[in-house]
Amino acid sequence: MKIPDEQRSIALDLIYDRRIFEGENCIYDPLQRFLALFEGITSSSRKSRAEELAELPIKDRLVRRIIEGEKKGLAEDLDEARGFGLTPLSIINDYLLTGMKEVGELFGRGEMQLPFVLQSAEVMKMAVSLLEPHMEKVDTQERGAILLATVKGDVHDIGKNLVDIILSNNGYRTVNIGIKQTINQIIEGAEGGKVDVIGMSGLLVKSTVIMRENLQELTTRGLADKWPVILGGAALTRSYVESDLAGEFPGTVRYAKDAFEGLALMDAIMGQKRGFPGATLPPLKERRTRRAVNEAMPIDTKRSDVAENIPLPKAPFWGSRVIKGIQLADYVKLLDERALFVGQWGLSGKRGEYEELANEVGRPRLRSLLNQAQSSGILNAAVAYGYFPCFSDGNRLIILDPEKLPHRIELTSFDFPRQRRDRRLCIADFFRSSDSEVVDVVAFHLVTMGSEIGKATSELFESNQYRDYLELHGLSVQLTEALAEYWHSRIREELGIGTTDSHEIEEILDQGYRGSRYSFGYPACPDLSQQVQLVQLLDAERIGVSLSEEFQLHPEQSTSAIIVHHPEAKYFNAN
Ligand code: B12
Questions:
Q1: What number of other Cβ atoms are within 10 A of residue 58's Cβ?
Q2: Considering the entire predicted model, what is its pTM?
Q3: Other CB atoms closer than 10 Å to residue 39's CB: what's the count?
Q4: Which of 38-42, 112-116, 469-473 is least confident?
Q5: Which of 83, 385, 533, 553 supports an S-S bond with 445, CB 3.0-4.6 Å?
Q6: What one-character DSSP code corresponds to residue 343?
Q7: Which atom of ligand 1 is nearest the CA belonging to 473?
Q8: Nearest Cα to 475, choosing from 331, 360, 351, 359?
Q9: Cα 63 from chain centroid (whole Å)
Q10: CA 212 to ligand 1 center in whole angstroms
Q11: Does the structure show a pLDDT above 60 at 44?
């Protein structure tokens, strides 16, 4: 956006050598076009962005500052605007918020990416704090207020915090009370904060149940009509919220797929509340006919057609070990760039723009962030892992005490669901059964990036460095995944099954190896409560990881898995 479109597209044509030929003749040569475009222009004749901005009338300049995320010279511009007699409130509402509205529209059309949206929000935040000392009490009339909380038992806060950033920098007051909040704390926060709306967030499947209970509690206490409720988070679906929950809740409840939908809902709710003409809430998603609930069916424990008598790898040792101080260079090779750039940093752009965004924005930021993170000592990668003798019994995997072998003394066990269709797969089928003369081997691992990185990201959020916050948080979670991927490859190597590994990183990230790594909470083994046995087996406290009552790992940037060597083991959905 800051480089004129023509210059940008010709520069890209040059980088990617997009010459066009007709037979032998080159009919389009980006190099020639590039030279022609800049003929006679020297670096001193090119105006700086500050100069370009300075030429705009002050009102347009304020709008552009927000859109371009340009902080330099902001204080002077705000003084100039006030010098013209504009009140702080008018500066905010008529110009700065106009800029933020445009930012939202650009984002909605895929023409602006999340890091730049956050950069604009940073300028907005700074402008408001510079204007605040000049505001009269009456000036501070707000557009509306929302309480934000991640529900009981759930530690995820990035989604809720992004909502906080977008809403608070679009003129709404936010009361962000944090993670793991009970309904009592939510109600107290809403009463105390005098909010208009309650926003709840949650990424766990369990959180969707908690949200339902919270709505029931609001109803029982006669508070259903007091606050409209907006719900968001990965495990929710629009139809669950807008048909199932809305059907049971006498008040208003809506689903927001992202922060901008949250903003649109706030605009609609507040518009209605203030009686703005034409303000309406989007209609609820149509109620679908409910699927027939499965009557309690007998549990199917019959083994599937997975081959049983495959040759077994040999465990390098029995029991568990701890490895600390793992070097970034070892696991960064397995960083899933696409998941980082698109999934975490929102560098999705329009169709076909991924490579450009990755080259121009993603990779340079990634390099500098990795350098900073490494030199500041906030990466403390550690692993607890181990190998255990085992056998399957129906849908259970029995873990044996390695010290008592050859006697088969059970240490603990895991229960896995079986598919009701397709191949009727169940994780237990990938292991020798109790009838086998030999015992099988299973590996587990639990990896963590430590707690310092979480503290560093929180500090960025607290100090309103939104873009840095998003980027460091995103990097931290993808490094956790990379560490898990790296340790899985070490385990394959130690088991002697790494020889079939693909040499391409993209293929490795797509399970291009023998066996599989299943994490509790994912579709092949959704029951999170079995993290308990895993954490005990690996004695995870040794690497500073503990499990909360709601089966969440602390520190947040941690993940666990059961590692299966069977060649037929791949991801599947047991539901
Ligand atoms: C990255 C990731 C991780 C990372 C980091 C997790 C973290 N702490 O942030 C790591 C690798 C560490 C991880 C680990 C685990 N994860 Co994980 N993870 C994810 C993943 C892929 C993306 C989450 C994310 O960062 N999203 C980006 C943020 C910005 O999005 P968001 O929070 O959804 O918020 C946006 C919207 O939803 C919306 N929104 C959210 N809230 C609200 C509220 C309001 C009011 C509004 C308006 C809008 C709104 O707006 C936000 C911004 O636009 C999700 C899958 C997914 N698609 O979401 C699984 C997921 C959350 N993980 C899952 C699981 C199971 C785990 C583990 C338990 C696996 C394991 N056994 O180790 C562990 C647990 C970790 C722990 N500490 O306990 C499950 C949870 C489901 C469940 N079974 O309960 C998910 C859903 C994957 C799945 N099964 O499909 N995970």
A1: 16
A2: 0.85
A3: 7
A4: 38-42
A5: 385
A6: I
A7: 9
A8: 331
A9: 30
A10: 19
A11: no
pLDDT of residue 463: 92
- How many Å apart are CA 261 and CA 231, to the nearest integer? 11
Q: Which of 344, 451, 559 gets mutated to test ligand 1 (max ligand atoms within 8 A of its CB)? A: 559
Q: Would the CA dihedral through 226, 230, 235, 237 be positive or negative? A: positive
What is the phi/psi pair of residue 20, to 5°? -115, 130
Name all residues whose Cβ lies below 6 A of ligand 1: 156, 158-160, 162-163, 199, 201, 203-206, 230, 232-235, 256, 258-259, 262, 477, 480-481, 519-522, 526, 528, 552-553, 556-560
Query: Residue 139: what pLDDT?
Result: 52
Q: Compute the average pLDDT of residues 502-522.
A: 92
What distance in Å separates the CA atoms of residue 489 and residue 513, rounded to the nearest whole number? 9
Whether omega before 4 lies within 30 degrees of 0, making that bond cis, reads no
- What tens digit of pLDDT does each residue of 47-90 get? 666 777 888 888 899 999 999 998 888 999 999 999 988 888 88
- Nearest Cα residue to atom 76 of ligand 1: 553
What is the spatial distance between Cα 46 and Cα 406, in angstroms, rounded to a whole number? 79
Centre of ligand 1 from the C-alpha of residue 290, in Å: 27
Helix (H) or strand (E) holding 508: helix 505-509
Phi, psi of 373 (to 5 degrees): -60, -40
The DSSP bridge partners found for residue 321 are: 385
Separation of alpha carbons 183 and 197, rounded Å: 14
What's the whole-number mean pLDDT along residues 313-333? 95
Please tell me the least confidently modeled range out of 7-21, 53-67, 234-248, 527-541. 7-21
3-class DSSP state of 268: helix
Non-local CB neighbours of 435 within 8 Å, separated by 6+ positions: none
Strands 197-201 and 229-232 come out as parallel
pLDDT in tens, 538-566: 999 999 999 988 899 999 999 999 999 99
